[in-house]
Amino acid sequence: QGGVGLKMRVYDRRICFVNNHFAAHLENVTRRNADFDHIYRTMNFNKSHGSAASDTSVQLHKAVNANGNQPDEDRPELAEADMVVFLGDFNYRLYGITYDEARDMVSQRSFDWLRERDQLRAEMKAGNVFQGMREGFIRFPPTYKFQRHQPGLAGYDSGEKKRIPAWCDRIVYRDSRSETIRECSLVCPVVAAITSYEACMDVTDSDHKPVNCTFSVDLARVNELIRRQEYGKIIESNEKLHCLLQESHHVPDTIISTNNIILENEETVVLRITNNCGSKKSAFEILCEGQSTSKQDGTKTDFIARASFGLPHWLEVQPSIGLIEPGETMEVNVHHENYYTQEEFVDGVVQGGWCELTRDKEAVLLVNVTGSTSTETVTHRINVRHCCAASSPPPPVSLLAIAAPPGDAPSSEGLTERSSRKSQSNHLQRSDAHFGASEVHDLHRLRNM
């Protein structure tokens, strides 16, 4: 026993279908009611990220709290739907009737008399199951139990158990209608009517006869084009709304002290942002649009966008975000600072500094200014350039020229000279010098001296 559900949106209205199989046997009416209650309360669908339909569904009359209102967090998801259809083998039987009496009534097509003994009809009338739902008028014979592959009404179970014929297979539904609202509207967006409800008596592959139901459904939806047009008319005709809309587009007039900043060494330059508006606060945020670096031949590298990576490591801006009172000025410190990664240090010595750290660098800062209540933004661009004094790489040193003969005993002066030469040879190696096989051998011998 259990249920499986399907939810779909039609013009942003939620329609759910739940196929069920409830507990069997004549005496298990309470279990069948409990099966419905459990499925209804626990049926969940994946939450979609699209626009949510307006909450206009009619809630089924389920358990309520002390105030008479069911808490929103406890509302079943099926209660939020605009239309719900339950279908399947509900297993409700005919009571107070024998097998032979039921067969006689079926053969005479006295379905009115049989309906009075239908468990589901009695339980729905008592409010014990499918609360707030309705079913089409039954004009077809009971759909259970048949012998497989035997057509016609003669196919009812005639075996040892002789199960009493019953309408086990049913379709019930609810739409958005309530006791006070019956017409389709935005308040009552889904109104359904049954146009046919019948059993497929020609099917003989099962001991049940499937049933089908055809609905005619009216849906109320919002025409978004007309809605936007009417919304525009309301704004234009309402002076208060018109003023609020204009205010949301207003950005206080701000002035920045410069559009070009040149930094030398590790100095700090003060950038001033002035709010010229006398009544509104202005908010600012400073971002980096991108940066470039000068090459050794004097040309610049391609401009690299920073996107959401923030400021370059060599540039500090404090504060980078703030609120400026009317008529006030905010001072922003723009500072260059050398930045080294762990790989750029070896034995406390900056590696490759002559070719990386001494290059000129440029960045474009964006000063985005908006009002404290506005949705618009005004952007100022500032070019920041860091200039370094050019330096040359250390001159190459021949390792063969500084290698001592193998048999000579080193003097204190020679040790000092070799120590200096060893430092130079290490510097050359880290500067990507190219050595032959004999030079590498001499370098190894020098390091072992």
UniProtKB/TrEMBL annotation:
SMART domains: IPPc. Residues 1-223 form the Inositol polyphosphate-related phosphatase domain. GO terms for molecular function: phosphatidylinositol-4,5-bisphosphate 5-phosphatase activity. Residues 429-449 have a biased composition (Basic and acidic residues). GO terms for biological process: phosphatidylinositol dephosphorylation. InterPro entries: Endo/exonu/phosph_ase_sf, Ig-like_IP5PC_F, IP5, IPPc. Signal peptide: none annotated. Residues 404-449 are annotated as: Disordered. Coiled coil: none annotated. It comes from the Eukaryota. Belongs to the inositol polyphosphate 5-phosphatase family. This is Inositol polyphosphate-related phosphatase domain-containing protein. It comes from Aegilops tauschii subsp. strangulata (Goatgrass).
